[in-house]
Here is the input.
Amino acid sequence: MLTIKVLGSGCPNCQRLERETRAALDALSIDYELIKVTDYADIVAYNILQTPALVINERVVSAGKIPKRSDIVTWATLPE
Here is the structure.
């Protein structure tokens, strides 16, 4: 099972990233847990400069933008 984290304050872009991520992974029928990380100290621990950010299995794959669904699918299916 994948552990997905959306890092951000809960702004509209953060919400959009969550929707896009859920749509991409639901289309693949992959088991995943999506966690929204809104605490500033927790976000800073990932050493990112901009939100929203997407973390898959503790690896930051995107920060400061809304990635394409196809990119999310690619990142989610990469071997660990």
